[in-house]
Amino acid sequence: MAKREEILTAALEVIARNGYRRTSVRELAEAVGLSQAGLLHYFSSKEELFQEILRKRDEVDASAFEPDTTDFMEGFLGVVRHNAEVPGLVQLYAQVSTEAGDPDHPAREFFIQRYAEFRRRFAEQIRLEQAAGRVDPDIDPELAAGLFLAAADGLQTQWMLDPSIDMPEHIAYLWHLITRKA
Predict the structure, then answer these.
(1) Per-residue model confidence as pLDDT tens digits over 39-72
(2) 19 conformational bin, left if phi > 0, alpha if psi -120 to 50, beta if neither
(3) Which residues, other chains included, contact 128 with Cβ-Cβ below 8 Å and sequence gap of 6+?
(4) CA distance 56 to 32
(5) SS3 116
(6) DNA-binding region located at which positions (predicted)?
(7) How far apart are CA 182 and CA 179, in angstroms?
(8) Under CATH, to which class is 45-179 assigned?
(9) In 65-166, which residue ranges form alpha helices assigned H by DSSP?
(10) How far apart are CA 50 and CA 158, in angstroms?
């Protein structure tokens, strides 16, 4: 388990630095002193390796921007800001999440669960904001949560094509539209 965690931590750094397309499994193996076969011994496939790298990225982001220690939206915006600093990981996420649309892709269940958990947590936050009187009670929390996820993923795609797009500014504006009084 320790070696697997070492591999995932190193992979985050290598992919963030070099980009998804410019990082090979061989290079990831070398970063932790293994052969390519030795690295893949810890994962059932290259697809599982990339899925676990994304899971590790989510763990790191959650610990750095945990809603319990900061304002929920500020924590979320912190993750979005951080993503702009690690374009290789954004590329990996975009690529693997798209491939996971295939019913036979090994990461499909990971993304189904990830999206469901994101929507659940975001909808919960919107309900809390509704209870505090900061969000219109007519807004459907589940639908709004899905829109935030779609906005975040869509903005990442736009940002990969045009890095001048300010992802946090767009998400903050969407939150402003949701939380402003009518």
Answers:
(1) 888 988 888 888 888 999 888 887 766 655 558 8
(2) left
(3) none
(4) 16
(5) helix
(6) 24-43
(7) 9
(8) mainly alpha
(9) 72-85, 87-99, 108-131, 141-161
(10) 22
CA distances in angstroms from 43 to 18, 39, 52, listed in the order given: 22, 7, 9
DSSP output for 76-89: HHHHHHHHHH-HHH
Question: Helix or strand or coil: residue 182?
Answer: coil
pLDDT at 37: 86
Lookup: tokens for 96: 């693997």
Closest among 149, 16, 14 to 82, alpha carbons compared: 16
Go through 144-166 and write b for each residue having 16 or more CB atoms within 10 A of its CB, e for each that does not: bbbebeebbeebbeebeeeeeee
Tell me the per-residue pLDDT of 150-177, one tens digit each, with 9 for 90 and over: 999 999 999 999 999 999 999 999 999 9
The pair of three-digit structure tokens given for residue 59, joined into one six-digit string: 């763990």
